[in-house]
Design a protein that fits this description.
Blueprint lengths: L7 E5 L10 H13 L3 E5 L4 E2 L4 E7 L3 E7 L3 E4 L8 H12 L13 H8 L12 E3 L2 H11 L1 E6 L8 E7 L2 E7 L5 E6 L2 H11 L5 E5 L11 E9 L5 E10 L14 E3 L1 H9 L1 H26 L4 E8 L5 E7 L5 H5 L3 H25 L2
Parallel strand pairs: 1-2, 1-6
Antiparallel strand pairs: 3-4, 4-5, 7-12, 8-9, 8-12, 9-10, 10-11, 13-14, 13-16, 14-15, 16-17
The chain binds adenosine-5'-diphosphate and magnesium ion.
The site of adenosine-5'-diphosphate has 23 residues, from strand 8, strand 12, strand 16 and strand 17.
Length: 364
């Protein structure tokens, strides 16, 4: 196709070790971009030749090839910024602070600051588990109050560095996943030993303590909902899809990367709560999603897509666990919903094109 007048969308990402962290997703994104008539390429901060207004970006033919591309009209930010070293992130944050590009999406603050932000919304407040910064004193208070708590790194992703702690008959039972997601379970018999153990656990970063939710609704496996909401080609928020993730045996987390499985929401919830109740629960999840998006955009600026982790506890109460600004979409593939996977890949590109259209209209 002719290059002239085709919109150019750059996808900002990190490529350090392997070519890219999410090669299958990126290949789908490039393919969909082609179908939409856009020029789409991937690039990382080090590929930007600002003085020449050119970028040595990547596309996929039979393999990844790097070529020189014209400057993008708009950039979709897919540079993961959590669970990364400061050295890896420095060029990224430098780039985001400059006004070299028009970005289609903003990023989110860490889990604790986000929680503080969401607490201001009346609808969200009762649906957020109690959350605060880690300290031994707060941990003791939270365990005495809730019996089960979660410890999580403020900048963690994919279920890394998470501990579930339960107080039972004077003992502490823990189920954990370290930074490499390796699982470990055990029992600790005194507060002192518990604090010693946690001292080491939290030594490599900042952590939060969170009220534990009873999410073991599927034969003692942890289950939660992943909901993907995206802006469409008219810039409106739409719920692209959702599904339940069932954690592997004894896992404190449900994340697919940690061995979780994706199953259709109704298949999990119907036998537990019945038709009417499920309709009400799912509709509450949708309201939760729209309220979350509104609160985030009021505070952080326009977003493009959000992946919400939603807890539905044994009583059917709905809780917001986490919000991801650069969500995965493999869940749909896992559930056999190929059409939703494609829609989920296409929407960010359509939204970027919508923004470009709006920009051109502005400049007329
Ligand atoms: N407070 C909690 N109560 C019960 N389960 C939780 C809680 N927090 C997290 N989990 C489980 O751990 C998973 C990972 O936690 P999350 O906060 O989403 O961190 P990450 O960014 O690593 O995905 C959740 O999807 C859920 O299955
Ligand atoms: Mg999560």
């Amino acid at each position: 196709m002719e290059t002239l007048n085709r919109p150019i969308i750059g996808i900002l990402t990190l490529h350090s070790k392997k070519p890219f962290e999410e090669p299958a997703f990126f290949r789908s994104l490039l393919k969909e971009g082609e179908r939409l008539g856009a020029i789409v390429y991937l690039f990382s901060p080090k590929d930007v030749l600002a003085a020449e207004r050119k970028i040595t970006g990547f596309v996929y033919t039979d393999k990844w090839v790097q070529k020189t591309f014209p400057w993008p009209d708009i950039v979709i930010d897919r540079h993961h910024y959590l669970s990364k070293s400061a050295a890896e992130l420095e060029p990224y944050f430098t780039l985001r602070q400059q006004s070299l590009f028009r970005f289609a999406n903003h990023f989110l603050p860490d889990k604790l600051r986000l929680h503080g932000m969401l607490m201001h919304a009346d609808f969200l407040r009762p649906r957020l588990p109690e959350t605060l910064a880690y300290s031994p004193q707060e941990l003791q208070r939270m365990l005495e109050k809730h019996e089960m708590v979660y410890l999580k790194p403020l900048k963690g992703t994919g279920g890394r560095g998470i501990v579930r702690l339960e107080m039972k008959n004077g003992n502490f039972l823990f189920h954990s996943r370290n930074r490499n997601r390796l699982m470990k379970h055990g029992k600790i018999s005194s507060w002192n030993r518990l604090f010693e153990w946690l001292e080491r656990w939290v030594s490599d970063g900042e952590f939060l303590i969170q009220q534990g939710l009873q999410l073991d609704i599927v034969s003692r496996h942890i289950a939660d909902m992943r909901l993907l909401m995206q802006k469409d080609e008219q810039g409106m928020w739409r719920i692209t899809g959702h599904g339940m993730r069932i954690g592997s045996k004894k896992s404190p987390t449900s994340n697919l990367h940690g061995g979780g499985r994706g199953i259709l929401t109704h298949k999990i919830l119907l036998p537990l709560f019945g038709h009417e109740r499920v309709e009400a629960i799912v509709s509450e999840c949708f309201t939760l999603a729209f309220e979350t998006a509104k609160t985030i955009e009021d505070n952080c600026g326009p977003m493009m897509e959000l992946g919400l982790d939603i807890g539905i506890d044994r009583q059917g109460a709905v809780w917001l666990i986490e919000v991801n600004a650069m969500p995965a979409r493999n869940l749909f593939k896992q559930m056999g919903q190929e059409h939703l996977y494609r829609l989920a890949v296409r929407r960010p590109l359509q939204y970027a094109l919508f923004l470009l259209g709006a920009m051109q209209a502005d400049s007329l």
